[in-house]
Amino acid sequence: MTILHRALLDATRAGHGPALPDRGGDGHGRALERTDPVAPGHARRNPTATGVLPQIAARAEEAIALRHDLHRHPELAFKEHRTSARVAELLQQWGYAVTTGIGGTGVVGTLQRGQGNRRLGLRADIDALPIQEDSGLAYASQNEGLMHACGHDGHTAILLSAAHYLAHHGRIDGTLQLVFQPAEETGSGALKMIEDGLLERFPVDAIYGLHNWPGVPVGHFGFVDGPAMASVDWARLKVLGKGGHGAEPQGSVDPILAAAHIITALQSVVSRNVDPRQMGVVTVGSIHGGQAANVIPDVVELKLTVRAYLPEVRDTLRRRVTGIAEQTAAAFGARAEIEFPRGFPSVINHPQETAYIREVARQGFGEAQVVPAFAPRTASEDFAFLLQARPGSFVFVGNGDSAPLHSPRYVFNDAAIAPAASLWARLAEHYLVEDAA
Question: Count of CB atoms within 10 A of residue 288's CB?
Fold first, then answer.
């Protein structure tokens, strides 16, 4: 039975496919060993024990060195010029047709082999964050106030490691599109590339992406059917009152009092307006108003994030946040002005494509390295836009014990590079050869 047939079977079983007692090895009949944790940022010296392809294992140190170089030189959204140039240089050396400048600083590497008609897309994000690094690493960021605190340097190294394997050893019959996307952290890079003709110029039948995840055993994989990450919208709320002396509040309209009641009332949105079986998050992360203890200010400003898995819940949250802010402010004689642009939607994985890559992982790494019942995450990802446009799935790979994402002490675990690169390589070979007929 091919992976495609098993994936179709899995999809009909809501993602719970059959165990593979006779194929739970490394693809060559050898049993897989469960791995122990390794220190963050350090690679295991025997990656083949985890089902890693031998050719990828042989270049593990080169992939790690590349990741460390990218880590030293983080770049913010749409400013990833050095990173893009490095990616393009390597892809060209390995025989890919390379196109740069897509959506600003995006890069696409195309590898076409044989006469096959299938087209597969794999995506990595390349941008960093405005965070001052506090990791203590010897290869820490050399760019003041910038850091790869979400592991995008690792994601890039993973896809480049797979790219090298597929160019030199890959058994593919069809077209492979490797997408290196800028500006994921601002939620604008994927959409910018799409608007620049990404999917028309570099067509794919399916597209996949991944993200490392702290707290999951290193090199283990998580797959989610349906909503996998939340939508996110940012709101900026101004509560407009009438300032005055703190000793004579009766002549004022206190925006701080109104803002406090708005914040309290917002806590009812999820508990009373969202089905308890669904997910919603309303977070007030910033409040600023006034300068002195005895002065009532004119204005208080709040900043919020709003998240959900389902589009209908997202719409409910937006409607209720706006209504509560306006009506609560009015109840205190104040006025609320809210800027509430849409951010990006939830990552919703397609069932068949998710079942497909889950089966690739099971056959390549064994059941033990596929995390059972991996739960959706409430963080957000602009890969969502690509999944709205094409079938595909967003995958998680364990980063082991590390500080959380976006922490100044976060460290990407180098031991995750070879397993994740092998997953991409196996996916490409199966999708473009075994199941292409």
Answer: 12
Indicate the angle between helix axes 351-365 and 3-12, nearest 10 degrees.
120
Chunked into runs of 10 residues, the chain (437 residues) has average pLDDT values of 60 42 32 35 46 97 98 98 98 98 98 96 98 98 98 98 98 98 97 98 98 97 98 98 98 98 98 97 98 98 98 98 98 98 96 98 97 96 98 98 98 98 98 76
* Backbone dihedral angles phi then psi of residue 235, each to the nearest 5 degrees: -125, 140
φ, ψ for residue 364, nearest 5 deg: -85, -35
Q: For residue 227, what are the contacts with CB-CB under 8 A and spacing of at least 6?
A: 309, 310, 346, 347, 348, 349, 376
Give 3-state DSSP helix, strand, coil % of the chain, rounded to 5.
35, 25, 40
Placement of tokens 């690792």 in the chain: 154
Contact between residue 387 and residue 347 where contact means Cβ atoms under 8 Å apart:
yes
What does the pLDDT read at residue 303? 98
Continuous segment of H or E residues that includes residue 200: helix 198-201
Radius of gyration of the chain (CA): 24
Q: pLDDT at position 32, please?
A: 29
Q: In this predicted structure, what is the pLDDT of residue 2?
A: 66
Looking up tokens 């009949």, which residue turns up? 29
- Say what the pTM is: 0.89
383: region left, alpha or beta (phi > 0 left; psi from -120 to 50 alpha):
alpha
Dist. CA 405–CA 85, nearest whole Å: 26
The sign of the CA dihedral 142, 143, 147, 153 is: negative
DSSP string, 330-381: HHTT-EEEEE----B--EEE-HHHHHHHHHHHHHHH-GGGB-TTPPPBSS--
Residue partners of 51: CB distance under 8 A and separation at least 6: 25, 26, 27, 32, 364, 365, 366, 369, 419, 422
Q: Which residue's structure tokens are 């940022």?
A: 41
DSSP annotation of 310 reads S
